[in-house]
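Private note to self, pasted from the team thread so I don't lose it. Backbone tokens:
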């Protein structure tokens, strides 16, 4: 795992995310008002430094631990809004988006420190994130469909429902161990394709649109997190035990 491609992609994606935060000096996920810009710059610095640290064997665990803490802390800023409006799923969704970003770091840290139980928790956490992705797509189905390029057959609504189903099936696979590695690989491919086919044309057409840029970069970090999960499942003794059961 220390030399896995997923780990390298995850590190690079976080460095890119940090640079993005430096450029825009804002974050749609950070639900604070006081000292917002200073906090964003601190997060950006930690993203870049932690991403770089993951490339070096002696500092992998420190970089991974930093990123896990950062993303979980950002996710926790959504808790007051969840408690205030528990029926608004967008607030729940924001927490799980941040958890998905943290999963890659959790697994990298767990493997570097030889904590297999923590790595398994990371897999289960990513399954919960997939459930959240599916729920949020159902909640905002029309908006999801509008993100699908018009030229992709058969139609936009078909792919909105199909990707919702794929997220749900991925969650089942990760929770049960049935085709879990394939589920993580499919997640990775689906997220990368979504970023390239749906979000990239929008950010090219509207380069000054902060929201879509943020979504584009965050989607790539989520895809990198899924890649780390897939790499872990490829050689995990936990998976071999599940298949023998």
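Design output:
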């Amino acid at each position: 795992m220390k030399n896995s491609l997923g780990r390298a992609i995850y590190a690079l994606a976080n460095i890119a995310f940090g640079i993005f935060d430096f450029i825009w000096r804002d974050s749609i996920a950070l639900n604070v008002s006081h000292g917002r810009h200073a906090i964003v710059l601190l997060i950006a610095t930690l993203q870049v430094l932690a991403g770089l640290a993951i490339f070096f064997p002696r500092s992998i665990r420190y970089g991974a631990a930093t990123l896990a803490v950062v993303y979980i802390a950002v996710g926790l800023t959504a808790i007051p809004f969840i408690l205030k409006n528990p029926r608004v799923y967008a607030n729940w969704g924001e927490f799980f988006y941040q958890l998905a970003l943290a999963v890659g770091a959790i697994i990298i840290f767990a493997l570097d420190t030889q904590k297999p139980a923590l790595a398994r928790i990371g897999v289960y956490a990513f399954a919960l994130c997939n459930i959240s992705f599916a729920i949020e797509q159902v909640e905002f189905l029309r908006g999801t469909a509008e993100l699908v390029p018009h030229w992709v057959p058969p139609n936009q609504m078909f792919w909105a429902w199909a990707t919702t189903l794929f997220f749900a099936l991925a969650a089942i696979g990760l929770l049960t161990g049935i085709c879990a590695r394939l589920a993580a690989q499919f997640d990775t491919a689906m997220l990368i394709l979504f970023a390239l086919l749906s979000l990239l044309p929008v950010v090219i057409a509207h380069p000054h649109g902060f929201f879509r840029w943020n979504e584009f970069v965050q989607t790539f970090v989520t895809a990198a997190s899924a890649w780390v999960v897939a790499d872990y499942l490829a050689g995990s003794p936990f998976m071999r035990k599940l298949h023998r059961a």
